[in-house]
Amino acid sequence: MFELRNEIMIPKEILKKVKRIEITSRGLVNDVFSGEYHSVFKGRGMEFSEVREYQLGDDIRTIDWNVTARAGHPYVKVFEEERELTVMLLVDVSSSGNFGTFERMKGEIAIEICALLAFSAIKNNDKVGLIIFTDRIEKFIPPKKGKSHVLRVLRELLYHKPEGSQTDIAGALEYLNRVTKRRSVVFLVSDFINFGYEKALQIANQRHDIVAITVTDPRELEMPNVGFIELEDAETGEVILVDTSAAEVRSLYSQKSSHDVKKRDKLFHSIDIDHIDIRTDQPYIEPLIRFFRMRARRFR
Fold first, then answer.
1. Number of domains in the chain
2. How far is the C-alpha of 265 from the C-alpha of 94, rounded, in Å?
3. Residue 114 and residue 89: Cα distance in Å, rounded?
């Protein structure tokens, strides 16, 4: 229903963008990123193999308490590394992504990050899938391996014209759980200008390894002093006139933005969601590398 048909002709300008992003992403993967990805995610998927008697030095968290109780002495669970991982890109393409006060829009940066993650995955022989969403499911591409598949994912992200304009993160997560039965590493890429997704995020994180990637423009956090301006909500179309020269207005705007960010980050922390914060006015590669190195230390 949601798959890209081969007969669709992709415009030349889109193909040029695909090639440029491919070259950039593959360069970063080969130079600095592949080892970070491998150390964090390769081997994170484990399958139960057997139980055996506890030996000195075993991690006590692996003790099988049911078998231990029956046997009268400790037994531990033994796991084997899964041969491959499934990486799902869950990408918000709502209208608020068409905003950016620096070189690129939030949506453009989100696509480049997805390309980088996808090329890292296939370099490690993992599968990559894609769910594009707004306030509805726009496109689903089932996970597969290989460069040609990743290029298809990238073309779809660049070429897709959303039908919806608003955001429904909860609906996207519920759809993810329906179509992805196998435990996956899920990169949820959004500006998270949405509410009511807390329960869906918690449920999805119990089934999958969710990593939230927030893409934010600094003008969404602080309002500049530029006099009277019209502000339009990209998702609803509502327009309001604001006097940015009023210090009280700028202060209230900053307070509201800060409150929303703290509330979101508190949610991520409370349900153990890993989080990467990307800003449009700063290079995105450094936050990604910092995150993967942090996770690598955690799993040593």
1. 2
2. 21
3. 7
